[in-house]
Amino acid sequence: MCDMSALDNLVANTAYLKAQSGDEKEMRKRRQSLALPKPGNCESIRASVGQDFELLCELQPIGKKLFRLFLNKTHEYNITAHFLDELNDWELAEGAAKDKTCTNIINQFCKEGSTSFLSILSGEALEKCKAVTEKDFKVVMMGKVKEAVRDFLKGKPFTEYMLSPFFDKFLQWKEYEKQPITEKYFYEFRTLGKGGFGEVCAVQVKNTGQMYACKKLCKKRLKKKQGEKMALLEKKILEKVNSPFIVSLAYAYETKSHLCLVMTLMNGGDLKYHIYNIGEKGLEMNRIIYYTAQITTGMLHLHTMDIVYRDMKPENVLLDSQGQCRLSDLGLAIELPSAKTTTQKAGTGAYMAPEILTDMPYRTSVDWWSLGVSIYEMVAGYTPFKGPDGKKEKVDKDEVKRRIISEEPVFENKNFDPLTKDIILQFLRKKMDERLGCKGDDPREHEWFKSINFPRLEAGLIPPPWLPKPNVVYAKDTGDIAEFSDVKGIEFNAKDEKLFKEFSTGAISIPWQKEMMDTGLFDELNDPHRKESSTGLDQEKKSGTCTLL
Questions:
Q1: pLDDT tens-digit profile of 288-324?
Q2: Residues 293, 214: one domain?
Q3: Which end of the chain is more exposed for a tag (fewer CB within 10 A), N or C?
Q4: What pLDDT sits at residue 43?
Q5: DSSP state of 463
Q6: Residue 18 — very low, low, confident or very high, per pLDDT cuts 50/70/90?
Q7: CA dist., res. 352 & res. 235, Å (int)
Q8: Catalytically annotated residue among 311, 417, 442, 477
Q9: 284 with 385, same domain?
Q10: What is the three-class DSSP state of 296?
Q11: Distance CA 389, CA 395 (A)
Q12: How is residue 413 annotated by DSSP?
């Protein structure tokens, strides 16, 4: 007899895996009708983009690319851009390559006889540049000189750029970015999981082939459980963050029944799955250090924006197809302006810090505690204050709470080495002001991380210790994912509709622009020799078909 649930799962997995490999013929066909808005239709957006140099020329990928193309047209400007590129290469280089890059920079940009001499410098920065040696290179070049070069670019070059055809092209892309996003812009594939308010499924942008995870939050369920504001807060926090170690929000839109967050697809499974379901419980030490380095950098990014994560646990750390990890599920995260604290209870029992359990005011300290618990779990295959499941004793929530508040962790597992014990103990200090990460210190400077070059890690230059298999779906079978029951008796009012509209802002600038560049659509639509289809945006809008993404 045919097992229909197994067949459904096979079909869903096959379609999902096939989508990731893409269909170039179909993609080319869809893209023929795409075109940027005409320059004359983009003037209204000129004032709204502002004049923030960092945002327009460094953070937004398309803006950064077009500004660089503008700089290339003027020799003096091109030299400064080339210098910043070389300085970045030096920062990421190691060993002999780093020394060689240092020497090249000094000879190329710091010698007055060189054709690439930084003649735009003046005053102290100029004198320091001319006198720099390999010994004081980092202090001088990464300090005064780099600052002076960026200040120069923020002046005349930036002003000229904003009056150039390159900036006009940027405005065309910003107008294109504003296209309304609906469910019609995506193909939807298998369900990857369920949450308290809805499901997560795999989706693909029709016109680029980019795969994402779509978190679909049921509007009625949100209202019934009073979760609407929490959903909006999560969306706003995701919109702010920009780190390779935190899931990126690419789109936010609504359907008749759901609020949808379209985020980075993490198809390598979560760390909890890897700890408990592959081989012996626990992870290899090189993987633990690598993942913890990425987690730490991601959490520091949140903390610099006064965001407390509050739900750090292996289950919320996801791996992508390249074996890199990211923090996910920011539903419990909270923004706390500088010096402000909270006593609100939030998190998962076994990972909660003593200050949460004892109603003490806290800020980011709770995240470092949870990280200490998570490192312990990655090594041992169980959490420190609950112990292994194999033990006969039944540890209830109250006992776990008592142990967290009053007991020290015990290191029985053979895989705990002295440095690993030390960093865990420093993260698990009961007093907040004694905890690693809470004393004005940077946890990344602990000796446990000595094998990690953090600038290279952030640049994606350190190969991961483990790679997911491309033909494996690291998610539950579709038949194992429980169905939601209908929510009845819920009606929406004007206040609800206002919140839904505030949530549904469409494409998020930085991830969207990155998608345009990574998938080749940026180069294709900018090609001056490209023949534009007679359909165009306006005609496609009338027909009701998808125009962008």
A1: 999 999 999 999 999 999 999 999 999 999 999 999 9
A2: no
A3: N
A4: 87
A5: P
A6: low
A7: 24
A8: 311
A9: yes
A10: helix
A11: 9
A12: S
Residue with tokens 């398309």: 62
Residue range 29-35: mean pLDDT, rounded: 87
Distance, CA of 353 to CA of 376 (rounded, Å)? 14
pLDDT score at 490: 87
| Shared domain check, 325 and 239 | no
Domain CATH number, residue 115 = 1.10.167.10
> Distance between CA atoms of 316 and 346, rounded to whole angstroms?
15
Looking at the 3D structure of the chain, how many domains does it have?
3
215 is in an annotated binding site: yes
Q: Is residue 482 scored above 70 in pLDDT?
A: no
- Say which residue the tokens 């697809």 belong to: 265
We report the CATH number of the domain holding residue 444 as 1.10.510.10
- β-pairing, 211-218 with 258-264? antiparallel
Distances (CA, A) of 393 to 381, 383, 384, 387, 414: 17, 15, 15, 10, 21
Q: Is residue 539 part of a domain?
A: no
CA distance 190 to 387: 36
**Which residues contact residue 283 at a Cβ distance below 8 angstroms, ignoring those fewer than 6 apart?**
271, 274, 275, 291, 378, 379
Instruction: Report, as an integer, the average pLDDT of 226-254.
Output: 96
* Residue 248 covered by a domain: yes
Supply the range of the domain harboring residue 407. Answer: 271-458
- CA-based nearest residue to 313, from 264, 261, 383: 383
Is 275 a domain residue?
Answer: yes
CATH number of the domain residue 213 falls in: 3.30.200.20
Active site residue 23: no
Compute the mean pLDDT over every residue in the chain, rounded to the nearest whole number. 90
Q: Which of 161, 192, 223 marks a domain boundary?
A: 161
The pTM of this model reads 0.88
Per-residue model confidence as pLDDT tens digits over 151-202 = 999 999 999 999 999 999 999 999 999 999 999 999 999 888 887 788 999 9
